[in-house]
Amino acid sequence: MDILRRVNRRKRRPRPLRRLALLFLLLWVGMGLFEANRPMPEGLAVSQPWRPATDVQLLLDQTWQAGDGERISQQQIFDEALAMINGARRLVVVDMFLFNEFADENSFRPLSAELTQALIAARQQPTAPEVILISDPFNTLYGGMNNPQLQALQQAGVRVVLTPLQQLPASNPLWSGLWNLCCRFVGNSTEGGWLPNPVGDGKVTLRSYLHLANFRANHRKTLITDAGNSWTALVTSANPHDASSRHANQALRFSGPAALDLLQTEQAVGRLGRIDTRHWPQPPTAAPVDDDAELRVLTEDAIRDALLELVNSAADGDRLDMEVFYLSHRPLIEALVAARKRGVMIRALLDPNRDAFGREKNGIPNRQAGWDLYRAGIPVRWCNTHGEQCHRKWIRLDRSDGRSELISGSANFTRRNLDNLNLETDAQLRATRDHPTLAQARSAFDKVWTNADGIEHSLPYAAFADHNVARYGLYRLMEATGLSTF
After folding, report:
1. Most buried in the list 37, 135, 378, 467, measured by CB within 10 Å?
2. What is the rounded CA–CA span in Å between residue 237 and residue 249?
């Protein structure tokens, strides 16, 4: 009997550590759910009205390897961006994800320094236009290192805003829930780091790594400037990032009301950073468009909706071409497979996800998503990269009735980029098939797909095919949970 009483007393004895652990687990799950379901701030995730496609120009960057091993790069995007800034008289607004001189052995152009010098020169003009740079805190490793370019801009009177990412929904809620309980308020320091810098020389703090694991990002890549009484805009996939300077990228440059629509979308980001944008010009009231060519600006999940609408509207006899750095978004992949079954002719040109700034990757997610397309009978080819990345994010539909549409911008075709998690900007152009911009886009894609002029721009599916079931399962888990960098 004494033994039974002792056993019963032990069972009734309170276990505070277990209760604390259970309470912490409940708080962790609750905080993760709260962060995952945080609404996008006001003014984000918008589809702007259709506008006349005024002065639309397609700009392309491309790198390839010649037969003798020489690597050749043709650059258009930042040449045009620098010219736009040089012509500004009232306002320059730049929103770029990567703005730094982190480099590797494959870098060849100091894009961050060039853009920094152009923005400083704009501020030094007699008219001294207002210059705003919006970027991502990754460029300082979340306060863990100094960024000389950003410091020089601030000293020259440029307003530099690092987007407060904590106001965005969590794309990795499993970590962000814990982060908000344990680490969010500890700050960071550029001194005293003991861990290797993941993007350069020197040491950084553990706090930089803990910030990074949230995977939140302002991934936009836009530029808006005035030219006196007119406005011009650039929506691109390219970053002013030295280590990205050889990447293949695309951009659409345009003017008119659509440029002011883009400026309005940047006002929403500016408000997050407490910029007073009330004096910025507003776009005119939307009116019916009777031009043959029209364009609209899309941000965040409005890009996803436009992509799905485009693919789902494709019919038998239409042709759809896509070139993208990351493809993993399940609803979009399913829509592509369904379109193929309807008789849509589809060609998918994907980055092999092999090269990442001097490091070799494992091919996730494109090789697994490419397998989905391949099994559905969709032709897949891989960009033939040599250290650089096939960093484009665009899709074009040529309809059998003679009309074409193009969606182009910053958004990869992934859950993080399309489902209201990152900040993203794309532009959608629709016009007749022979519109110069659409004809140029078609020609550029065909050149890479067919290896025109004897240059091996792309490789057949077999070159990077990966039918490993375990890696495919890992890709699906990473896409669904946010435990990934794509």
Report:
1. 135
2. 6
* Architecture in CATH of 51-272: 2-Layer Sandwich (3.30)
Q: Is 358 left (phi over 0), alpha (psi -120 to 50) or beta?
A: left
**Domain 294-481 CATH (choose: 1.10.287.130, 3.30.870.10, 3.30.70.100, 1.10.1040.10):** 3.30.870.10
Which residue is listed with tokens 């706090």?
207
Residue 294, H or E segment: strand 294-299
Look at the alpha carbons of 206, 209, 213, 217 in this order and tell me if their dihedral is positive or negative. Answer: positive
User: Strand, coil or helix: what is 23?
Assistant: helix
φ/ψ bin of 389: left (φ > 0), alpha (ψ from -120 to 50), beta (otherwise): beta
Interatomic CA distance for residues 290 and 244, integer angstroms: 40
**Assign residue 429 a region: left if phi > 0, alpha if psi is -120 to 50, beta otherwise?**
beta
Q: What is the pLDDT of residue 232?
A: 98
How far is the CA of 484 from the CAs of 161, 212, 221, 352, 354, in angstroms? Answer: 26, 11, 21, 17, 15
Residue 152: name the closest of 100, 220, 79, 217 by CA. 100
Q: Do residues 149 and 142 make contact, with C-beta atoms less than 8 angstroms apart?
A: no
Answer whether the bond into residue 169 is a cis peptide, omega within 30°.
Answer: no
Tens digits of per-residue pLDDT, 42-81? 999 999 999 999 999 999 999 998 878 888 999 999 999 9
Which element (helix H / strand E) includes 252? strand 249-255
Contact 95, 221 (CB under 8 A): yes
The 8-class DSSP code of residue 378 comes to -
Distance CA 58, CA 56 (A): 7
Tell me how far apart the alpha carbons of residues 220 and 98 are, in angstroms, rounded to a whole number. Answer: 9
Residues of the chain with pLDDT under 50: none
Between CA 445 and CA 458 the distance in angstroms is 11
Q: Where are the domains of the chain?
A: 51-272, 294-481
DSSP string, 88-143: -SSEEEEEES--B----TT----HHHHHHHHHHHHHTSTT--EEEEEE-GGGGTTT
Q: What is the pLDDT, as a whole number, of residue 8?
A: 58
Helix axis angle, 77-86 to 111-123, nearest 10°: 10
What's the pLDDT score for residue 199? Answer: 82
pTM comes to 0.94
Question: Could you give the 3-state DSSP secondary structure of residue 298?
Answer: strand
Q: What pLDDT score was predicted for residue 6?
A: 59
* Residue 393 near residue 386, CB atoms below 8 Å: no
Report the 10 Å Cβ neighbour count for 454.
Answer: 7
